[in-house]
Amino acid sequence: MTKVVLIYGTGSGNTERVANGIIEGIEAAGADAVLKKYDGEFVDLSDADAVLVGSPTYNTKPMPFINSIFDGEQGDQFDGKIGAAFGSFGRDGKAVQIITEKMKGRSMNVIDPGMAVFTRPDEENLEKCRKFGESLVDKIKGL
After folding, report:
1. Nearest alpha-carbon partner for 53 in 128, 105, 90, 91
2. CB atoms < 10 A from the CB of 2, how many?
3. Do the beta carbons of residue 31 and residue 131 sit within 8 Å?
C-alpha cells in the first residue's frame, strides 16, 4: 500500500488543519498517511513512498527548523522520493515555494504547485486540501 508521510510545523494550528485535510484525501484514495509534527528529531522516511513538508509562512519564509529538515542525515532521506509542499499564510505563500525548491534541490520528484491556504482553512479550503490529497495519491500511483 502507498504510504505518505506529512511532516509539518505550525504556530496557530492553521498548517495542521491543512495537513489534516490533505490526510483525509490521501486516506479516501486508499493510501496510508502518517502525520508528524516536526520538533527537530530524526524522522525515519525509509518506507515512505512520498513525503509532504508543511510550514506556515513567517516573514516570507518557512519556519527555520522546517528549513533545516533538508540538511544532513535527515535530508538525505528525501533524495529520489516523491514530494510536495503545503502550508498556510497571511500575506504571501512563499513558504510553500521555498520548500518546493528545497525538495527539487534534494532531487525529489516534486508535485508542483503544492497546497497553500490563506489564513485559517474554512470548509471550502479544507475540501481543496482533500482533493489535493486524493490527486496526490493518483499521481503517486501513476509514476
Report:
1. 105
2. 17
3. no
Query: Is residue 110 within 8 Å of 84, Cβ to Cβ?
Result: yes
The three-state secondary structure class of 139 is: helix
- Of residues 4, 15, 14, 2, the one with CA closest to residue 99: 15
Task: Tell me the pLDDT tens digit for each residue of 14-61.
Answer: 999 999 999 999 999 999 999 999 988 899 999 999 999 999 998 899
Name the phi and psi angles at 54, rounded to 5: -130, 150
Burial of 108 (0-12, 13-18, 19+ CB in 10 A): buried
pTM above 0.85, yes or no: yes
* Residue 143 in this model has a pLDDT that exceeds 80: no
* Beta strand segments in 68-114, E: 82-89, 109-110
pLDDT in tens, 100-117: 999 999 999 999 999 999
The answer to whether 80 touches 51, Cβ cutoff 8 Å, is no
User: Is 43 exposed, middle or buried (CB count within 10 Å of its CB: 0-12, 13-18, 19+)?
Assistant: middle
Going along the chain from its start, the domains and CATH numbers come out as: 3-142 (3.40.50.360)
Count CB atoms within 10 A of the CB of residue 119.
12
